[in-house]
Amino acid sequence: MKRSVLLLGAALSLAAASTASAGRLSPSLLAKARANDNTPIGVIVRFSVANNAQGRQLFANLRAQLQTSLAKLGPAAGFVNEALKKNGVQLWLDQSIYLKLSPVQARVLASLPIVDEIFENFRVNLPAPKAKAQSTAKAPAHLQAVGAVQTRNAGLRGQGVRIGQLDTGVDATHPELRGKVAAFAEFGADGNRVQSSPHDSAQHGTHTAGLLVGNTVGVAPDAKLISALVLPNGEGTFAQVIAGMQWVLDPDNNADTNDGANVVSMSLGLPGTYQEFVVPVKNMLKAGVVPVFAIGNFGPTAGSTGSPGNIPDVIGVGAVDQNNQVASFSSRGPVAWTGAYNGTFVKPDVAAPGVAITSSFPGGRYGSLSGSSQAAPITAGAVAVMLGAKPGSSVDTIKNALYQSASNNGQKNNNTGYGLINLPAALQKLGVKVAGASTPVTPKAVTPTPPASAATPVGPAGYTFCAREGGSCKFSGQKRVAFGADGRYLSGLTSDGFNCTVAEWGSDPVPGKPKACFIQNGGQ
């Protein structure tokens, strides 16, 4: 996942660019380019294009806009098209392409006005499960906790809804899942599709699939699954995830057919804020697809959320235990965004059961796992039931019904958001009555450590605050900069701005704590 060679006490000498760059090259690529590095590496080239289309037609427009962007490359089209032929992938949902280019070529491409940014393809992980155990199938408590027993008995089971799942794959032969997998695809690290039949490279994907559509353990047993294997053995790349995201939205690669996901469940990400995920998520929202993402297992510290679950517009899901108490591992807000969003936001948005959750394991087995990875598919299954009961509901309508019916009575906090979801009450907000609806117990709040982001961060002596983690520092010319917190900083020289992220710097100086970036006073 290293995208930078900036190291503590070892400054990078990044001379000012000889030509102005329209697009921004990540600091690591810029350093390599200035060293005349001609070694091909995987990069993401994101284009700067307008995007105002709505609904499913958005997909066709995105493809057309990407093709138009490529046609405008001019003299640079030669090596770009050659790279596309060899190993390139068009990530239209992200308005980008994956290529293998040398840093020198990437720098040339970044000089074009239509290029927004170029960065190296970074690693994305599953949050490590906090506990697991073998078990046998039984009446799962998580269905009772969110009111799914009542909705299933009332015949509200996610009929006609397709759920996109990005995970480690799925064992489609499991008794819980037979006949439930409408489509399956596997993607390699470069975003290219890998020919394979449905399978699980670990056990995580089969477990989350069961919580979505399982016969006895799933919240929406009549919904169909569109499963993308993007995290082989629990780890993948940005290109892999984006390729999977756009595939679950349009499996047949034809925008005129309505075969894509209505809701997407993702239990993956990285601690901190990653601007790279914002563009594809916003395009998903414009298409009317509901994003339901795990908030992360980096708690109980305040400000410990992970991306993309902490993007303000998605439904970020935290975990509670069997006593309706927020799980110790569940990530807490707030989250400070600068750049695509500006401000400090309360996260997660809602909570669902996430401790010792029983679901399907590959090979016809059952077992329990703990994590926000389990809470997210339980919530995505609830959204599927809501969409099945009230087809055509907008993303905002679904969000409002889910939030205002949860256990915190319309109040939001940084432990459980609006509280434990209540599926029957959410359906009632949509005008769908469910017999036997009840209100779950309000989760008990655990007061986290006061967030470090409450006041303006203070950096090394002689440095001025520039941006909180997840934001970006924008300036022209060469500056000495630092990244970190609590007296532990990475430092170096860079030019024309940089991202304030662990991925950009290539190392985390203070794991688990909110960090910030700083610029040295008085120039270089």
Low-confidence stretches: 1-21, 52-56, 130-138, 445-454
DSSP helical segment count: 13
Distance between the termini: 28 Å
CATH fold label of the largest domain = Rossmann fold
Average pLDDT works out at: 83
Radius of gyration: 23 Å
Structure report:
- Belongs to the peptidase S8 family.
- The active site is at 167 (charge relay system), 204 (charge relay system), 373 (charge relay system).
- Residues 1-22 form the signal peptide.
- With 524 residues, the protein is α/β, with parallel strands linked by helices.
- The chain has an 8-stranded mixed beta sheet, sandwiched between helices. The chain has a 5-stranded mixed beta sheet with strand order 1-5-2-4-3.
- Helix 1 packs across helix 4, helix 7 (204-213) runs parallel beside helix 10 and helix 11 (395-405) packs across helix 12.
- The longest helix is centred in the last third of the chain and has 18 residues, at 372-389.
- The chain is globular, with a radius of gyration of 23 Å.
Provide a quick synopsis of the model.
Pfam families: Peptidase_S8. This is Peptidase S8 and S53 subtilisin kexin sedolisin. Helices cover 24% and strands 24% of the residues.
